[in-house]
């Protein structure tokens, strides 16, 4: 493929990504850009050209050693659910925009520490960016089949690099507030992550299944190559330790690498997105590693001893088989991996450079006295220039120093340097005593060791060489041999550097922190960082500050950076949040912290403090006093929390009370209605008795047969009265739970037959035919026979009563289910309206419903039946159709189940 | 001879009332609910109606409403005879236009006296 064609494809590809970024920037709140998957895939910016090409090279040369860099993150990622969440909370409330901000704020808004972290990051990351440029350049030359030109100006890759630098600086820094989310960039990065994975999987499948005949085939062919076994096993303790240290620095890297800090923390929109990331990112890393080994050893088998650069096997293999299309795809995947790293890293480095180095040490003074527009322009421009120069610097480093190194070795050096921030970072997160002096000492000493054991040897280009510096140590002092420092001679150079640098770093951090306690500001932030969950809602409360400051002075400063409009809005929000009168003129600690936060995104934490301090006269506070104030504010927060909790509880209780009250009222109404009906039902027979008796009493010449009739009426009505009272008492017993049910094993057919026998006379009188259908005579259930007889008696009486006048029929059916038996009693009467099917089981339903012809009865029978069946844990219901009469069915638990 | 219509769904109460009013020289008509009463009133014009409230199909209140719509029955007196003895029940009955509201249980003798008072 010609250079020009390839450049054209690249241009189209970049324009496409640019368009995606542009599109999603506009839709920054839509679910397409603000979702856990975009977040998770953007974290895969971890996989750079190092992963894409370098892993293959390493696997081809030394077997499994490529793995620890991915195992480390996979092991540590599950802890994100706790640790990352805390870091995100701390960063959110303090408007932290970079790892430098984070560390400098934790150690008391320290300007020098922020600058130091920035320098370390630049030292670590610029070569890492150079690595990406090297990958783009190397692969470009392979795909276009050109030779790298020794003259920078005739080399195509120079221009690619310049274009990239321009793109990154133009698009990477639109906002002056660095804590703004950059949805466009993040979405583009996530898309690139998907593309690089897909392209890598495609080449993996191609090599494994099309060039070779599956994993087995590659393994069989590779196994006969020289040193295969030795390369592909973790042999001894030394190897194990090498692995351990590599895992360790990659665990740190996934937290601290500036680009990881940026994508995982600064660009995090919602904490819950972590939940997706903790499974998706490890899965992504695993997928990426499936085909590394087949491609690497496939390349070894194909090209053997031709001395080709094994980093580029994934391109050389398709090219070897003249598959141009696939070659370009792989190239684009690698390009994606490289540019996403370059863009994110350069943006974060430029922010750190401006907010933690240039502004606090350089032009902070000039910012304070100019207008907001000018300030914004100046800050944004400084970052743009920063991005551009960092990428160009990386290109120069690539051309001058690292033309001949493998991708992996440069990457690892970066990791070791960045790992120097780990003790200060994690210590600050978990240990209150960690102090600024300790952090600075640790970082500086650790870096010096890295410098001595890695950077110098790499810079003089003598990693493997026979130079006397490596072999004999400076001035022939064996203990100072850079790769075998202090006689430690059994680790590889990089794990050895990790060991010594981190050991010295950690010990000095601990020792200095313990020996010299920090100032009150450090202690203040230590408290806020370690106990972030306590302060999350009103974190300004936790800030300790004493002194005199006017709100109007601070307001003026804010306007210079935020503009008048935004400053006003921010102040309104602040006053609302803390319920402060807007005429208040004196700033308190909360306001100072709030103002610093507003500026942090623009000029970094250290500068924010300096700017605010220029108008706020702070009084010195002693450490014990800080601790006392913190303790008080902690108590306040706890008390507030408790108050909210108990007020919530009260609310809940009052709601419950209201519900209970409503229930009581309903019950009261029901009770009134019941009493009403009961008195009415009782008065009716009394009325009949009274009238008849009065007539008998007063009328002496009443005929004998009429007298007889009246007397009979009195007897009947008295009986009715008595029955009614019995039933009311019955019902009352069931309702108050006084009625006991005595369960025993009974035969339901026999019970039914007994009941029918007692009704024989009634049945004969109405000339009703009874049809009794049953599957067996031996269906048994647990029930109180006396009570069930009562139910059956009632149901049969009703059935007979409501039967058709002519050809009356009553049917009985027993069915046995898995857990219950069901008894259905059917009559061929007029039927019940659908609306009334449930209501007939209510007390005194008959008397309350005028639409039914009032038959003889108490109106309590079915209500009592229902209670009895419910006490047996059964159900009772009615079904009816106009032509078919009514069926009432009840169920009882089956003998088999209730026995348990 | 005065004519009386007795409307009640309790046969034993009806029996006592029927006996008593016949003995007092009334011509007695009997209905077991409101609907039956309205049917009878299509052909007959009684002087007085004894009306129960709680009855199936059509209750006493709505029966009275129907009666009040019929001009032929303008001179017909109506007495409620009910076990519902609350203030509001009585008020409702009287406001619908009944001449009397007597609560159950009642004295037969007194009922006859009141009826006489009403129609004379």
CATH architecture descriptor text of the largest domain in chain A: Up-down Bundle
The topology string of helices and strands of chain B comes to: EHEHEHEHEH
How many distinct beta strands of chain A? 9
Sheet-strand content of chain B, in percent, reads 15-25%
CATH superfamily of the largest domain in chain A: Sodium/glucose cotransporter
**C-alpha-based Rg of chain A, rounded:** 44 Å
CATH-derived topology of the largest domain in chain A: Sodium/glucose cotransporter
Question: What is the helix fraction of residues of chain A, given as a range?
Answer: 55-70%
Biggest protein-protein contact in the assembly: A-B, 28 and 27 residues
Q: Segments of chain B where pLDDT lies below 50 for 5+ residues?
A: none
| Beta-strand proportion of chain A | 5-15%
- Helix fraction of chain B by DSSP (H/I, runs of at least 4): 40-55%
Give the CA-CA distance, first to last residue of chain B: 12 Å
Individual helix count of chain A: 37
Tell me the major beta sheet of chain B.
5 strands, parallel
The number of distinct structural domains of chain A comes to 4
Task: Give the overall shape of chain A.
Answer: elongated
At the first level of CATH, what is the class of chain B? Alpha Beta
Adjacency order of strands in the biggest sheet of chain B? 2-1-3-4-5
Please count the helical segments of chain B.
5
